[in-house]
Amino acid sequence: MSDKKVIRLRRARRSRLKLRELEAVRLCVYRSSQHMYAQVISADGSKVLASASTLDASLRGGNTGNAEAAKKVGLLVAERAKAAGVTQVSFDRSGFKYHGRVKALADAAREGGLEF
């Protein structure tokens, strides 16, 4: 693995250990060069309560690797999480910087009704 990826994974591990210690339901985000993925994971980490990505049929058309697509994913994951009975989450950015697409997804999830 490249040094850049190793450093990101180290940051992600550190934050996930803290969230596990707090026993918080987490909104986990992953971004690739082409897509955005978001999952709401239970406090013990054993179940995925809701998920959304740019690979979903409803979001598939158009660009999938920009901030506009990330906003759509954020709104969709918030809608699905509320349907599953989850309103309070902790944001797990997976070691990615909080700007651009990651920030757009988080802001949209807040607009959709999730509380961080």
Automatic annotation (TrEMBL):
Metal-binding found in the keyword field: no
Subunit structure: Part of the 50S ribosomal subunit; part of the 5S rRNA/L5/L18/L25 subcomplex. Contacts the 5S and 23S rRNAs.
One Pfam entry name: Ribosomal_L18p
Recorded name of the encoding gene: rplR
InterPro entries in the cross-refs: Ribosomal_L18 (IPR057268), Ribosomal_uL18_bac-type (IPR004389), Ribosomal_uL18_bac/plant/anim (IPR005484)
HAMAP family assigned: Ribosomal_uL18_B
Transmembrane intervals: none
Family: Belongs to the universal ribosomal protein uL18 family.
Protein name per the record: Large ribosomal subunit protein uL18
Function: This is one of the proteins that bind and probably mediate the attachment of the 5S RNA into the large ribosomal subunit, where it forms part of the central protuberance.
Transcription found in the keyword field: no
Keywords: Ribonucleoprotein, Ribosomal protein, RNA-binding, rRNA-binding
One GO term describing the cellular component: ribosome
Gene3D superfamilies (alphabetical): 3.30.420.100
